[in-house]
Design a protein that fits this description.
Elements lengths: L2 H10 L6 H15 L4 H5 L6 E5 L3 H12 L4 H13 L21 E6 L5 E7 L5 H11 L4 E3 H10 L10 H11 L16 E6 L5 E7 L20 E4 L3 E7 L1 H6 L2 H10 L4 H13 L10 E7 L4 E5 L5 E6 L2 E6 L1 E2 L4
Parallel strand pairs: 3-4, 10-13
Antiparallel strand pairs: 1-5, 1-11, 2-3, 2-6, 5-6, 7-8, 8-9, 9-10, 11-12
Helix pairs in contact: 1-2, 2-5, 4-5, 10-11
The protein binds aspartic acid.
Aspartic acid binds next to strand 8.
């Protein structure tokens, strides 16, 4: 079965939640068959590359290994981020995510492919692999964004299973928070771990995925930057891609990821473009002292960069079989 068809069937037959492994196995089979074919001849020694926000070593390695086996950029990014969506210890992505003020875990995600197509889901309950669901919106509907119940019902029609996303641990912490519930949508180093991932595959094509449970104890219905194309993620395969993490409201106000790609288009390196996008926020007023924002970016040549407002942000880079954690430079030196 052709990989394209196989992947489609994986998510249509109710095994979407193990899509990552299934996609990987299939790619392995294909790369065996294609041993001496085009994948090898097209390989640039610098490629493939996977980068992701924060220190998600396993997720990034999984994406990097998939890329090395010939998986295309978007599927590799989805394989990578699904590691964190399924990681119960990660309290700001997927299953195990921190709930909203009313105890509902609601997830946001988007994907963008190298041909400029994209898909997103916002405020979705009971579905773990929302990045894969965002891809299904992209490939199986004429739309870009599905929200809430509509997205959830679409997921079941696509074969996704219903899952309880609120773990006992997250529930306990939420119940503790309820004793003195103060609504402070504060983003600091401890409380955000959105995973945004960008992959550059063997063919030199770039795609990305971004997935989160958003701000801890957010207002019911609140959606941040992560599923918003142009804010949490943007890819232009002729130029490069960028993803964001941190206080989503501020990223949306400056359309951060789109801005970075456009700055790269005008000649800036990924590093300089990330710095300029952070400065657009920090130049306005001194509110930035109360929240964190970080960007990572990659260009067509495989150069990467990152910048954050405050100290403490790191990102992963997989290249030539090496998976490194890189400390980002940052704006606020005080
Ligand atoms: N950007 C995410 C949001 O605002 C939060 C995060 O990165 O932790 O929903």
């Amino acid at each position: 079965m052709k990989r394209r068809h196989f992947i489609k069937n994986v998510s249509l037959t109710g095994v979407g939640l193990v899509a990552g492994n299934a996609m990987l196995n299939c790619a392995e089979n294909n790369s065996e068959k294609n041993e001496n074919e085009t994948i090898m001849t097209k390989t640039n020694s610098k490629f493939p590359i996977a980068i992701c926000t924060w220190g998600f070593a396993n997720a990034n390695a999984k994406a990097g290994e998939a890329l090395s086996k010939g998986v295309k950029a978007l599927d590799a990014a989805i394989i990578g981020v699904s590691v964190e969506e399924e990681n119960l210890k990660n309290t700001t992505v997927g299953k195990g995510g921190t709930p909203d003020r009313e105890g509902n875990v609601t997830l946001d995600a988007c994907v963008m492919d190298s041909n400029g197509d994209c898909g997103a889901v916002v405020c979705v309950e009971n579905i773990t692999n929302v990045a894969l669901l965002a891809k299904q919106v992209m490939t199986e509907t004429p739309h870009v964004i599905l929200a809430s119940k509509g997205a959830e019902e679409f997921a079941y029609r696509q074969g996704f299973e219903k899952d309880n996303l609120l773990t006992e641990d997250s529930k306990k912490v939420w119940e503790e928070w309820l004793k003195s519930p103060e609504y402070k949508p504060l983003i600091n180093i401890e409380n955000h771990d959105t995973i945004g991932m960008l992959c550059l595959d063997n063919d030199g094509d770039i795609a990305g995925a971004c997935t989160t449970s958003g701000l801890s104890y957010k207002m019911k219905g609140r959606v941040g930057d992560s599923p918003i194309i142009g804010s949490g993620l943007f890819v232009d395969n002729e130029i490069g891609g960028a993803v964001a993490t941190g206080m989503g409201e501020e990223v949306i106000k400056t359309v951060g990821s789109f801005l970075i790609v456009e700055l790269m288009r005008s000649g800036m390196s990924p590093q300089k473009a990330c710095e300029e996008a952070v400065h657009r926020i920090t130049n306005k007023n001194d509110k930035y002292k109360g929240f964190q924002i970080a960007y990572i970016a990659i260009n067509k040549a495989g150069d990467t960069g990152s910048y954050s407002i405050h100290k403490g942000f790191t990102y992963m880079r997989y290249q030539n079989g090496k998976n490194e954690n890189i400390h980002s430079s940052y704006f606020n030196k005080i």
